[in-house]
Design goal:
seven-stranded antiparallel β-sheet; alpha+beta; seven-stranded mixed β-sheet; 16 strands
């Protein structure tokens, strides 16, 4: 067999060409070539295209299935195969007798990129341009070298070269801890999210500690000094694991990243729940957690709007579509989540209403579909931010990842102020059923102003918004 006896690196792409006379008998059609590329994913990380003269057919491969396919077909169905890894290009050539020759070529790299991809400026004839041209060429080369050094030395929370099991399992990292080139954007996205989470962890932990102390003080007041707690328990009672809830967890890149970051990097005990509508995705993530022997994660198949689990400390929503984000935010507010990290997408609800708006002043803004789509997204997220501010959260709207990575790149990050959420009664100044004191003075006025500004914005366009309705602030 042509591929037996050599150690295989992770394949990024493979192309099989020059079909033999046996190709139809072996594969069922007269394929002229097959192109395979690494796309990532825990189950079937490879995508293959089979080409006949007039048609193409698609198939997904697991790692084992790809190995078996290449083993059976190189030299039998196709005479040529070129495999590319991050470090090598490997060519298999078969002759008429079926003998296969293997050629290997290292890919020359500089600063992590093939030489052919370098963009250093080198004038063909510096003398013709004079001294300035030569100086410019040197400056350009120095800049490119400096830029490459900056890219290599980026201080990520998860460093390249550190073996991270979940990233390996999800196809982002090789067995040696090297980030797969095709997955570098995902690697950067994971690290950026962890940076944004890390920023709020101290405040969340402080709020949890204060809440525990208040609960203990209330317990002491209710039962007196002679209670069941020992002195050591009173002085150093361990906190419950940090509760993380990920709505719309999908393939759970970030869910597993948060678990790894909290447990392995920060040494913070946590319990993480991922919720998604797709049964196959939930099963895949549950299986991956089992394979990685991760005990503090569970995945639930269900609708965000109907979820009723344990009160979370932190709520995450990444690209929960349209009003699913609103249900997640409402759950976070109603359950008193101490922090929210939400990257919304597909703000269709307001967009559909703006198309029917009779507000002549904004007609030019709403006339073109792309304008209306972008404006409705900004308007929706502005309303969400104001409503969260009205309910006691300090809100920041941040760039989550570069526009090159995804156009859905705005994150609403909200941190509960003072450890107590504000209900609609508190905003209006009434005592909420005797459980929380009514706000007074500047705090109540500020909350009311945030609420009113959101309502006024919606009213200007005659629109409703789901989070406003869920929190009691609808029109």
């Amino acid at each position: 067999m042509p591929r037996v006896g050599y150690i295989r690196c992770m394949i990024l792409s493979a192309t099989l060409s020059k079909p033999t006379s046996q190709v139809e008998a072996i594969l069922g059609k007269k394929y002229e070539r097959v192109k395979i590329r690494f796309k990532g994913g825990p189950v079937s990380p490879y995508f293959a295209e089979f080409f006949t003269r007039t048609q193409s057919f698609h198939k997904n491969f697991s790692q084992a299935e790809l190995d078996e396919f290449l083993q059976k077909n190189i030299g039998r169905s196709f005479k040529n195969c070129v495999e590319r890894t991050e470090e090598k290009e490997i060519t298999f050539l078969a002759n008429k007798r079926g003998e296969v020759k293997r050629l290997e070529k290292a890919l020359a790299k500089t600063g992590g990129k093939p030489k052919s991809a370098q963009t250093d400026f080198k004038p063909k004839n510096a003398a013709a341009f004079g001294e300035k041209a030569a100086l410019f060429g040197a400056a350009a080369s120095a800049f490119n070298a400096h830029k490459g050094a900056l890219n290599r030395s980026k201080n990520y929370i998860i460093q390249e070269g550190t073996v991270v099991p979940f990233l390996q399992a999800l196809g982002v990292m090789t067995d040696a801890g090297k980030v797969v080139a095709a997955k570098y954007d995902k690697f950067r996205q994971v690290n950026r999210f962890l940076e944004l989470l890390d920023d709020v962890l101290p405040a969340v932990q402080q709020a949890r500690s204060q809440a525990q102390k208040c609960a203990k003080d209330q317990s002491d007041g209710a039962f007196g000094a002679d209670n069941n707690l020992s002195q050591s328990q009173e002085g150093g009672r361990p906190m419950e694991p940090l509760q993380i809830l990920d709505f719309g967890s999908g393939k759970s890149y970030l869910t597993f990243a948060v678990q790894y970051f909290l447990e392995s990097v920060k040494k913070i005990p946590c319990q993480i729940t991922g919720v998604d509508l797709k049964e196959d995705v939930i099963k895949s993530c549950s299986d991956l957690a089992a394979r990685l022997a991760v005990k503090n994660m569970n995945f639930v198949c269900g609708d965000i709007a109907k979820y009723s689990g344990k009160n979370p400390d932190i709520v995450i929503t990444l690209h929960a579509c349209d009003v699913a984000t609103d249900y997640a935010l409402a759950f976070a507010v109603e359950r008193g989540a101490k922090a929210i990290l939400s990257v919304p997408c597909c703000q269709k609800e307001v967009n559909a209403q703006l198309g029917k708006s009779s507000n002549a002043l904004f007609a030019p803004l709403l006339r073109h579909g792309i304008f209306r789509e972008r404006f409705s997204a900004l308007m929706t997220d502005a309303v969400r931010a104001q409503l969260l501010e009205a309910r006691g959260y300090k809100v920041q709207v941040l760039e989550f990842i570069d526009m090159e990575g995804t156009p859905k790149n705005l994150m609403i990050r909200a941190l509960l102020k003072g450890g107590a959420r504000l209900g609609q009664e508190a905003i209006s100044g009434a005592a909420p059923s005797g459980k929380e004191p009514a706000l007074g003075g500047a705090a109540a006025a500020q909350s009311l102003a945030f609420e009113q500004s959101a309502r006024d914005l919606l009213k200007a366009f005659g629109a409703r918004q789901k989070l406003a309705d869920l929190l009691g602030g609808g029109l």
